[in-house]
Amino acid sequence: MKRWLLTVIAFSLVASGCSRYKGISQPSETDSKTEESRQSTEESVQNTEVEAGQLPMEVSAEPGKKPVKVKGIYISGYMAGSEGLQAILDKIQGTEINTVVIDVKNDDGRITFAMDDAPTVNEIGATEKYIKDIDSLMAQLKARGLYTIARVVAFRDPYLAEKKPDWGLKNKDGSLHRDNKGLAWVNPYRTEVWDYLVEVGAEAANAGFDEIQFDYIRFATDSSMKQVAFLEADTRGRSKTDIITEFIQYAYEKLSSHNVFVSADVFGTIIGSRVDAEAVGQIYHEMACHLDYICPMIYPSHYGDGNFGIDHPDTEPYRTIRAALKLSKQDLDSAREEGRPQAIVRPWLQDFTASYLQHHIPYGAKEIRAQIQAVYDAGYDEWILWSASNRYTWEGLLTDEAAKEEAESLARVRETEETSSAAYSGTKEPQSEATPRQSETREPQSAEQTEGKEEKAKKSLEESTAEAETRPETKADNKKKPRTKPDVVIVTTGGSRN
């Protein structure tokens, strides 16, 4: 992004800022995402226009970087460097999947491949070389036409905190703080940590990744945080939400010059909840002002009984995803300002069975498709599936050919809806979701809701998709006893840990 544009945006932020959430819930003290062990086609990459429903692309990153409508899966660093990767790539071939999200900095704070030009990474010995030959891996992924996203876990970093204690969270007695699982976190207020994360992101970009995606871009939330002392010399009067937003601005400016898009994973429960937002430091619409993509983790299993008026959200994936994205639209619409960029919404979806819940259902092809349909019916186009064990429900995915037919049908529906909306509102041009915020001519997003389609979608899914078999439980599943979640739970896309 051009420096003058960044200056204008920064000045605008200082002058106007973004509005805050209204609180509706109390966050849980534990993370529960971790119960589950976590192609763009060449034609898509080479298109000079965005697919139906989007505006022509004008990307201000270096020439050649084109947005992709992501349909992706997560792959752990370990899996990316193992023989098992080939089986996954073969399964992907011919399906609608066009993207892989790969651990570059994992939940333990380890870097998954050698980074020659990363001084701090090498100083502390952070590399755990799961991926032996990153150049060969990237060449293989590109040959298959896949869009590549580097997952970089940010402030939960026990390795960095142990190696650089001064960068870690500290208790009131001066000792290194550890959460309820005994893991140390780094201090989001320390700019040295920011530079470390940018260092890792830049190396991922140099390796050939198309996008840098930050996870755990937040504060810890368990009860042990009461012991943490935040020094005024670090905070300088800034709140948790202030500092997370500042970091995103900083990282975005630094990494955009490397010709990559920048995204962040956020808790689904922060949408519409000031209490949750302030606990973790994530204000949804403010973060969306400074990213290309924002990725809410809206797994049905992570909403407590009664959320969205649904008795047991995990048992109704379509309704839960649809309701969460409707809330997303409302939140972003309420904060939209003319001339301000806003990230494209790309949700994480659930591809695991939450057997640790008292009220759950097996997740198979029908449930995967229901979530994807809900994304489309909510007016959004992109999604990523999460399975910490990297076991995916391939039968729930469309073939590449069927996906193209679906996209054409969806485009016709969107065109009709947008035309009707424009006629109703008297606007000359219908609004639509456009390109990432690196475009200098960013138009507001649209997520026009198609009320009354839920029953029709459900019926179609039941007729076209067979019931999936119950998938084996993971070790993480077995460790958890059945329990009922609170009204709203704080979750994350963590890796193979509890």
Automatic annotation (TrEMBL):
Stretches assigned to the DUF4015 domain: 72-392
Polar residues: bias regions: 419-438
Superkingdom of the source species: Bacteria
PROSITE patterns given in the database record: PROKAR_LIPOPROTEIN (PS51257)
Gene3D superfamilies associated with the record: Glycosidases
Region (Disordered): 24-53, 408-498
Pfam families: DUF4015
Composition skew (Basic and acidic residues), residue ranges: 30-41, 408-417, 439-479
PANTHER family associated with the record: GLYCOSYL HYDROLASE DIGH
Protein name: DUF4015 domain-containing protein
Species this chain originates from: Lacrimispora saccharolytica (strain ATCC 35040 / DSM 2544 / NRCC 2533 / WM1) (Clostridium saccharolyticum)
